[in-house]
Amino acid sequence: MQNSNISDARGVHSPTLKSNRLKSTRIGSGIVHDYWSDLFAAKDSGKKVVWYNGTYIPPFFQAHDVAWVHGEAWSAYLAARHVEGDAQSAGESRGYDRELCSYARTHIGQALMDKKDLQDGKIDPESPRGMAISQLPMPDMIVNAYPYCSSGQQWDEMIYRLFDKRVPIFHVNVPMLWGGRKDAQYLAGSEMDDKVAYVSRQLRAMTEFLSENTGRKYDWDRLSEVMSYIKKSAELRLEAMDLCTATPSPASFFDWIVTIAHVNFMPGTQRLVDFFEVLKAEIAQRVADGEGAVPDEKYRFFFDGMMNWNKVGWLAEKFAANNACVVAGRYTHMSFWQEPQAVNLADPVPGMAHNYLACPNNSGAPYMIGEIDRLCDKFKIDGMVMHVSRTCRGMTNSQHLIVDSARKHGRAALFFEGDVADESFYKDELLNTRLEAMIESLDSRRAMVA
User: Fold this and answer.
1) Kindly report the CA angle at 260 between 359 and 157, in degrees rounded to 5?
2) Which residue ranges make up each domain of the chain?
3) Nearest Cα to Cα of residue 81 among 31, 10, 22
4) Longest dimension (CA), the chain
5) Secondary structure in 3-state letters for 110-171
6) Quick one: pLDDT at residue 15?
7) What is the pLDDT of residues 355-399, one digit of tens each?
8) Could you say which protein family the record assigns here (predicted)?
9) Which residue, among 168, 280, 157, 271, has the nearest Cα to 215 in the 3D structure?
10) Nearest Cα to 368, choosing from 335, 340, 337?
């Protein structure tokens, strides 16, 4: 392992800067910045605000001209800025266990509970923490559309109670695909068809909920327009991902991580399409030039588990410093409009439901693991990096089964513990030791073959 010699703003040592990140992601940062700025000003501009958790349903909100707060994104926003700690402590002080989903604990603890402290003058409104709290608009409506994760479904119920059950709430159930029928295939078969219809009915009912709480008729033509941008952006993204089968890989998992917001909760506009066109063009040029995301790529890894939002840059540099390119991952490559061809713009709802059901955690383990193995073959993966997110059981429950299958295909694997938004669970020394051991194992295998 290479020595660390760079310190971040908090004086913590991080690995030597070596990763070659995509330049176009800076354009994407501008889109994200403008989203938050518009959101923080939503009430001043007369917009109603919906808080939601779960799958990527903002096109329904955008088409109806309401602003939206994505709970997970808000917690990741705070964690990425390292101002999440007090919020999590506040959540614990209200009785929310430290092992509870740290997305939920952060959102509830800071954006809701500490609001009173800000009003009472206990928090400096000019501090990073105070600015974050004071800017978040309170909800006029709550929508839950959480696939698979029971914690996510209860999260909105707790927010509903914290607002004294006075904010109207609507639930969209996105069910599991067990794959038990004879005609079952991955995202295909009669079970899939039935559940697409089931989710579609609920989505149409959700538009009635939005209309009732805004006093405006739902604009279906506008939804089709929004989805035209989303669909094109998703197609460009998948085409760009496919270019990363090249060796060296022109982009890494960490490049895709910082573009998740754009296919998860950013507005569907031509600006979004333009961003993914630029990103794809940069990746294509790198392929032509033989330029890699890791300059001296020797190993290709698959990242499984939720992202540790406190450590995105840190982890990117750690793997690059060891000539390892994390090429793909379950979170980036198996979610977020992975099936754009299913969306018929004349009636986008069934295709949207199809994509919501495509959440990898919604499929029975054999199908999900089969898709992971297929991706690993496609991207020529040498080893699996299993991030055991301490408070996200939905992503970690199946990880030993995933590794069992990976090892049958000759791939090495390591497990390291961390979390999505609670930095205290991450142990750098543990990852260093296990990464070093996996690389030594890969080198030994190669030496035996040579």
Assistant:
1) 60
2) 4-449
3) 10
4) 71
5) HHHHCHHHHHCCCCCCCCHHHHHHHHCCCCCEEEEECECCHHHHHHHHHHHHHCCCCCCEEE
6) 47
7) 999 988 888 889 999 999 999 999 999 999 999 988 888 888 899
8) Belongs to the FldB/FldC dehydratase alpha/beta subunit family.
9) 168
10) 335
Give the Cα separation of 351 and 223 in Å (integer).
13
pLDDT of residue 153: 77
Contact 275, 246 (CB under 8 A): no
Residue at 341: amino acid letter: Q
Q: What is the DSSP letter of 329?
A: E
Counting Cβ atoms within 10 Å, is residue 235 exposed (0-12), middle (13-18) or buried (19+)? middle
CA 164 to chain CA mean position, Å: 30
Contact between 52 and 351 under an 8 Å Cβ cutoff? The reply is no
CB atoms within 10 A of CB 205: 11
Residue type, 107: H
Cis peptide bond prior to 147, omega within 30° of 0: no
On the CB side of 71, CA atoms within 13 Å amount to 32
Is the bond leading into 340 cis (omega within 30 degrees of zero)?
Answer: no
Q: What is the mean pLDDT of residues 227-237?
A: 98
C-alpha separations of 96 from 138, 248, 277, 394, 449 in Å: 21, 45, 43, 18, 52
Contact 71, 50 (CB under 8 A): no
Closest CA to 176 of 305, 351, 361: 361
The residue among 226, 246, 228 whose CA lies nearest residue 236 is: 228
Residue 424 DSSP label:
G
Q: Dihedral of CA 155/336/69/212: which sign? A: negative
Q: Tell me whether residue 165 is exposed, middle or buried, using C-beta atoms within 10 angstroms of its C-beta: 0 to 12, 13 to 18, 19 or more.
A: exposed
Tokens of 352: 């949207």
Q: Using a cut of 0.85, tell me whether the model's pTM lies above it.
A: yes
- pLDDT (0 to 100) of residue 394: 80
Which residue type, as a one-letter code, is found at position 376?
A: C
Residue with tokens 């501009």: 45
How far apart are alpha carbons 157 and 163 in whole angstroms? 10
Q: How far apart are CA 408 and CA 404, in angstroms?
A: 7
Confidence bin at 134 (pLDDT 50/70/90): low
* Neighbouring residues of 342: CB distance < 8 A, sequence distance ≥ 6: 350, 351, 354, 355
Fill in the amino acid letter for 149.
Answer: C
Residue type, 220: W
The token pair at 19 is 């990763």
Rounded CA-CA distance 161/50 in Å is 16
HSE of 314, CA atoms in CB hemisphere, 13 A:
20
